[in-house]
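Quick one: examine this chain and its backbone structure tokens and tell me how the chain folds. Here goes:
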Amino acid sequence: MRPRSIQFRLTVWYALVLSGALALFGGLIWLSLRNRLIRELDEEVQASASRFEAYFRRESRIESGSGLKTEMEEFCQALPPSSYLSLRGSKGFAFHYPPVGRRALRHVRSTQTRFTLGGEEFTLDAGASSREIHHTLDLLEVLLFSLIPMVIGIACVGGAWLSRRALRPVDEITAAARAISIDNLSQRLTAPGTGDELDRLTEVWNSMLGRLDGAVQTLSQFAADASHELRTPLAVIRTSAELALRRAREPEAYRESLTEVMAEAERMTQLVEDLLFLARSDASTAGIPMEPVDLDETMRQSVAEVRDLAVSRNIGIKLCSPGEQTFVQGNRAALRRLFLVLLDNALKYSPEGGEVHVRVGQDLVVVQDQGIGIGEQDLPHIFQRFYRADKARGNSGQVLGGHGLGLSLAQTIAQVHGAAIDVKSREGEGSVFTVRFLRATYTVA
């Protein structure tokens, strides 16, 4: 076992706790037994003294002198061998059993009683040796000091085996986790199926690996989609430049090539700006300054900005506002960009001659179009980056403009502002986008 391993530390702690518990247990047993044996010996000595006193009172009425002492010796012979009695009278009477007295006894427990009989005061000393008790306690000490280390040693070996067996799934999880890399994130750890902490730890690891795998796949797809989107304008720019430089052309031809290059450069610039905004939003929202923003005024500016585009497509825009200032804590430029995305999306998918309805409430903004709608299979994915439905085409069948970042950008801006975007749509009937601000808003009449 490694000194810093969990198995080693568990074994050490187990040994220390077990040693302390066994030491406390053994000490309590020793003290309890000692007190119990001494109490029983004291009770036996007291009982012997009481019986001897009663016997002496009774026999002194019948016998006296040497005859009385003979009777007393016969009585004392029935006492345990380790007992002694000593009776002394104030008028010179003396009796000792055994004759050598208590000087030959060790570890004596004794009691003294005084009583008066026939006008003479007697002092009775009774006692017994506690040698057997100490012998029993010494034997118990030997057993405890010899068995406790043996029990601790066996327990440590068993504890080390149990801890190694209990932590074996941890080693397996560690080995499996070490084998997983970015190339095989789809692998999962094998759950023990025991329902304990290790089983829950494995489930958490597998859940984390699943999220990490999804994030890596999303990142890879994002990089691939971004590369694909950037490749098209770069190819157009390169082709236009090559054609313009292949031979001498009229100034008007050069102007057309430069115009095409500028348009693709603007499209690529917009794509890069959207990607940078999404990247910053994913990293942190601390860099976006917030201030009170009037939703009604911001929406009016956004509608005015797309008015010419709507007129060119023969699409009407109807704005319904509360006629009062509705403030929300946010970033004016970001909110205008959010509204422009929703308006541009509504105009893009509305038929010629259609109408887009915009409504501003106290805590919401609604943009409704009469376009082609969104299919049920596409609705859960419209906020994914670079996602474009197969039906994102105009009436003539051409692919509509955009690079699939608009709604993802709108959702990110909404989340930064503590808002949520709700979408209701049916194919052929149009779509309704509702931006509801969950944070506190206030109005000024």
In short: Residues 391-400 have pLDDT under 50 and may be disordered.
